Amino acid sequence: MADAWITSFYQFMNSLGYIHPIHAAFVHMPIGLVVGAFIFGWLAFLFNREKLARSATHCILLAFLFWFPAVLFGFMDWQHFWGGAWLTLIKLKMVLAGILFIFLVISLLFVFKDGVGSKGALTGYTFCFFTVVLLGHFGGQLVFGDKGRTAPRNYTAGEKIYLARCSNCHPNGGNAIKPGMPVKNSPKLQDFDMFLSWIRHPDPPMPPSSAADISQNQAKELYAYIVNVLDRAGVPKGGT
Ligand code: HEC
Q: Is 168 close to ligand 1, i.e. is its CB under 6 Å away?
């Protein structure tokens, strides 16, 4: 049931022209606010400014509130774009998100117990800061890891679809979930019809792409990109 709800949510975003993971855009809220708390907190401490310590408190409180939607969107993206697959980076991010939650709560407890400018609160902000730096780093790797590639002009449309829909699980034409079943040189690429029927009805855990996700024409672009760019990338020099 949650699945259907998540799918229709992404179809709605799709219809607005937004095809990327939502968490990636939203997560700047808690990250930015933690960075704000860290900067205000340290400035308040170094220059003994009570007002700045207050600003830090407000930032950390908002960061705590935004933690919840950021994690929710992260979970939804994970279900939708990664098929809920247990990739190492995902596990790392879950653990770090849990750690961040604990540091946020500890920071707030210190604020309430010892006051806005307390050393305990400042220590809390500092730990939150390093945790979000790590979270952001791994998140960036997850989403942009291999996405700096640019295909020759004719294939950029297909590449775009591949990066949005396939490369989370198939970075560089490989397979992050079942390494023995890469996209590159797959038997499913023999001709376009076979390819199309595979992406419409793949074996789980690969998620099916409906015509609303990837139209027939888009599938053609995608196929051309995979066969002409990705497949060839693995062919040693001098090969065909
Ligand atoms: C959530 C992860 C995930 C996504 C997203 C995904 N795949 Fe897959 N894909 C897999 C898995 C897992 C397999 C192996 C399935 C199996 O066990 O048969 C696979 C298998 C394949 C194969 C067959 C490999 C073989 O040798 O039989 C092709 C081709 C393929 N995917 C293409 C795509 C394309 C194109 C897209 C984007 C439209 C895509 N995949 C999106 C996970 C994914």
A: yes
